[in-house]
Amino acid sequence: MEIVLVLDNIRSTYNVGAILRSAEGFGVSKVILSGYTPRVHDENLLPHLRSKLDKEIHKTALGAEDMLDIYSSGDIISDLKSYASSGYQIIGLENNIPDKKPVLLCSKEMKSQLKDKIVLVLGEEVHGIDYSLYDIIDLFVEIPMRGKKESFNVSVAAGIALFGLCYN
Fold it and tell me: Is the pLDDT of residue 95 over 90?
């Protein structure tokens, strides 16, 4: 399975770093950073700001940021549409979606719908995936929860989702 991972509007540099480390560990082919997600090695930033962000991301990525193919998107909607037209299935990791019922990660239903090439979209830590991306997403998946909390931290959820997709 080929997996492209999208980090859209992730706020925390530490979450970005942790997600990059998991992505490298699961063999993600490309990571796309979009929205206000902190960029690693961002040439558009002043050197002192770039150095600060790189150091913060490195704290949890531990070098994975230099092992991955990372792309900074200026237009995530166009990028997702391009992947979709190239045969990729666009999957959103989300719960609490109005008017849409996500399938459970690792369920028979998910396994029956999964394609060989996917783009997994992760959204902002509190509000989730931006509504503007909903129409592009082919399938929403959610992680089953047993406790009282409604969600995991986005970096933890990314690791769980990647494991569930890679070893389904």
Answer: no
